[in-house]
């Protein structure tokens, strides 16, 4: 029986909190995917600032309660922004999507407490866009004793099939998403999704570098790693933090609150950026080594996506730390996939799987008890 093809929008706002990625795909929720349209919409300065401050004020579950009124106020502004860009898209294209996958903006994540708070009012978004909305992707996984993250591996698995078929890149493959946090999907083959993919949050990605630049300059991020390339690494500071900090287990999900930049205090803008960049690359490379150790395999094909893939300085440090001339490191853009929009496309795809009650997380990707679907389906019009 032929599977229904859904036309779906994905909305993703990442840890940089600078805007929303919007992607339109067609998919059956299984093996068919057509990537149709991608666009980035930047927040105004006020919304960007409010989101950053809110996340900095929410360090634990008590903070969520104490800041509930403020959270609700900013959530409404954030949702109105998403509704505006969706309605602009619908007006320009002349049709409505079957579903909207609405990830929302993460302000707090702590799997041990079964809490992952993404602001974004699905009821309001559905009402304003006259579309079915799927949100709250992480909660069912948390309730199933999963980490609630990462959720993109099932989409990475689908993308790897396309790359393997069209570009003859052989398995095993690591798809490395360097967003605010770095997560990795290790894909050993394409025969059985439950057995062939393993996923982990392994390290910070852009979060330390972005925070340093926000607090010490007018920049929101280090474009292409240019600022880090101008700095001198403080090896004493770097070695001290390497000795005193360790990610205990890559089997546990990470939040940006797990890291801080205080060890770089007193360094110049450029030297601090360079030192933080090398520290981030060190943790990423250590995480990649742990993946090989856990799965008793040597993965040489690396595909990078997310904003960090453009940071030439962090990429060069990762290569040096891994010290393997056989590594094949490519940006996902080389396979005709825009690396800026992998996550927004992923949540469009996950929305379809949630609608069909198909699993979006697995024991090998989030440590949940069993394959688990997710999301809340909202029709408020």
Describe the structure.
The protein starts with 5 loop residues before the first strand and ends with a strand. The model has no long low-confidence stretch (mean pLDDT 96). The chain contains 14 helices and 12 strands. A hairpin with a 4-residue loop joins strand 4 and strand 5 (115-119). The chain has 381 residues and is of the alpha/beta class. The protein has 2 domains: 6-147 and 343-378, Nucleotidyltransferase, domain 5 (2-Layer Sandwich), CATH 3.30.420.40; 153-335, Nucleotidyltransferase, domain 5, CATH 3.30.420.40. Helix 8 runs antiparallel to helix 11 (269-295) and helix 10 (235-244) packs parallel to helix 11. The strands form 2 sheets. Strands 1, 2, 3, 4, 5, 6 and 12 form a 7-stranded mixed β-sheet that branches.
User: What spatial form do the alpha-carbon principal axes imply?
Assistant: globular
The termini sit apart by: 31 Å
- Secondary structure class reads alpha/beta
> How many domains comprise the coordinates?
2
Q: What amount of the residues lies in strands?
A: 15-25%
Order of helices and strands: EEEHHHEEHEHHEEHEHHHHEHEHHE
Question: What's the short story on this structure?
Answer:
The chain has 381 residues and is α/β, with parallel strands linked by helices. Helices cover 41% and strands 21% of the residues.
How would you summarize the topology of this molecule?
Blueprint: E1 6-13, E2 19-27, E3 33-42, H1 45-57, H2 61-66, H3 68-93, E4 99-110, E5 115-119, H4 122-129, E6 133-135, H5 139-143, H6 153-167, E7 173-178, E8 181-187, H7 193-196, E9 197-204, H8 207-216, H9 226-230, H10 235-244, H11 269-295, E10 301-305, H12 312-322, E11 328-331, H13 342-355, H14 363-366, E12 376-378
Helix pairs in contact: 1-3, 3-4, 8-11, 10-11, 11-12
